[in-house]
Amino acid sequence: MAKEFIVAIELGSSKITGIAGKKNLDGSISVLAIAQDNSEAYIRRGAIYNLNKTMTALINIKQRLESQLQTKIRKVYVGIGGQSILGVRNVIVRELEKDTVVTQKMVNELMDANRGMSYADKTILEAVTLEYKVDTQLQTDPVGIPCSRLEGNFLNILWRESFYKNLITCFADAKISIADMLISPLTLADSVLLEAARRAGCLLVDLGAETTTVSVYYKNILRNLAVLPLGGANITSDIATLQIERDEAERMKLEYGSAYTDNADIDKDKKYPTADGREIDSRKFIEYVEGRVLEIVENVWAQVPAEYTDKLIGGIIITGGCANMKNIDKVFRTTTHIDKIRFAKMVNQTVDATQPEVNSQDGRLCTALSLIAKGDMNCAGEPLLPPGELFDPDGKTPEPEPEPEPEIEQDDTPEPELPKKPSVLKKIGKALREFINTAISEEE
After folding, report:
1. How is residue 258 annotated by DSSP?
2. What is the mean pLDDT of the segment spanning 334-343?
3. How many helices (H) and strands (E) does the chain have?
4. Of 154, 188, 1, which is closest to residue 80 (Cα–Cα)?
5. pLDDT tops 90 at residue 423
């Protein structure tokens, strides 16, 4: 029986992740294969900047996945995120005669006008309808209401055309077919947020390596989407300014880093050892880490539109690799004054996996798993077979090749040479040439 599975590729700033999984009838996901490649040398803030290295990485990931699956991959789902996308609010207004009853046609015309908006070097990926204003009243469905002014409020999710061109080029050169391109923040929200939280109002924060993605929901509608050029890598860079190698700075961040430390708990005499035998003053280390974390959180809170800051009853949901930093929830509480904070270390779907990267449940694979959950097309191709074995689409075992018969010794006495007869192909070719020459002569 042919295999069925979904394959997704997430282009992250620290890693490209390829993952294959099967969606079961009960809604759970069985992870079948995973492959990752360090992407710091060719992806920045979620956008491709080195096409050759990205293409090579994609080929490598596909081959590693196929090796684990023992099946060829026909197509993949691709997550679109990072600074390649941004959310822009837009308003379309139509002045009407007094007491004009709003029709569905009028609403459709507003939506079409919004879709027709032109943005320099950017294309609309998704247009989210926020609400309509009928005269002075906000409505989710204005059809049938009399008014003299109709206003449509939209959130347009844009992506940069240069990113699109680079992405398509890399996948084409790697000979990988794309099943669909999914907006990662929206797909992630579907897998880590509860409907009750989105309805009540909530803030989803995906803390990545070089970007932090902020999504604001209220009444089950996405109200704002922003991608900040800040992440865990910025904290590492700050630590590295203490004359520490970057790899060592990353290690120290993971080992000693805390987003918040109470003044009473700071030991002025404590030192942190480095790999080269030096020691770093713990107080200075704490100041560097806390200062950058506070900057990130303050910028996150600034992306929440003023009209929703007091409506986030569903609280704040934090995910992503940088969400693992100790006490980061305390910084969010003191900055936003919202006490209800939850960590999304795994998607809401039940996940069955043997891979340690998945079972660590540290939030790093939530987006990749959400892409699997969203996909609905079988990405499996032909099975990989040992060299020389033929693939039978009917699932039957090919008949073995008959063994060659033993050679019979022949008399070496040469036989008289007979005149060679023209082959069938030569006869056909000669007749065809004669036909063409005759046809040409008749035309002349």
Report:
1. B
2. 97
3. 12, 21
4. 188
5. no
Looking at this protein, which amino acid is placed at residue 41? Answer: A
The residues, ordered by sequence, that sit 6+ positions from 218 with a Cβ below 8 Å of its Cβ are: 201, 308, 311, 312
- Residue 119 DSSP SS3: strand
Q: What is the mean pLDDT of residues 69-92?
A: 95
User: For the residues of 269-323, what is the DSSP string, one character each?
Assistant: T-EEE-TTS-EEEHHHHHHHHHHHHHHHHHHHHHTS-GGGTT--TTEEEEESGGG
25, two tokens: 């009838």
Compute the distance between CA of residue 436 and CA of residue 291 in angstroms, rounded to an integer. Answer: 85
Q: Which amino acid is at 33?
A: A
User: Could you tell me what percent of the chain has a pLDDT over 70?
Assistant: 86
Taking alpha carbons only, the member of 58, 131, 54, 124 closest to residue 88 is 124
Sequence-distant (6+) residues with CB within 8 A of 227 are 45, 46, 81, 82, 83, 85, 86, 211, 212, 213, 214
With a cut of 70, say whether residue 393 has pLDDT above it. no
Distances (CA, A) of 41 to 122, 134, 330, 360, 408: 25, 51, 33, 26, 64
Length of the chain: 444
* In the predicted structure, residue 263 carries a pLDDT above the cut 90: no
* pLDDT interval class at 273 (50, 70, 90): very high
Q: Which of 10, 34, 5 is nearest to 377 (CA)?
A: 5
Instruction: Name the burial class of residue 374, with classes exposed (0-12), middle (13-18) and buried (19+) by CB atoms within 10 angstroms of its CB.
Output: buried
pLDDT > 90 fraction of the chain, expressed in percent and rounded: 80
Residue with tokens 């009917």: 394
Alpha carbons 281 and 269: distance in angstroms, whole number: 8
What's the rounded Cα separation, in Å, for the pair 146 and 96? 10
Neighbours of 17 (CB within 10 A): 24
Closest CA to 211 of 132, 104, 322, 129: 322
* pLDDT top residue among 398 and 297: 297
Average per-residue pLDDT for the chain: 88
The pLDDT-based confidence of 428 (bands split at 50, 70, 90) is very low
**CA–CA gap between residue 382 and residue 392 (Å, rounded):** 9
Nearest to 333 by CA among 251, 274, 259, 250: 259
How far apart are alpha carbons 290 and 273 in whole angstroms? 19
pLDDT of the residue at 404: 53
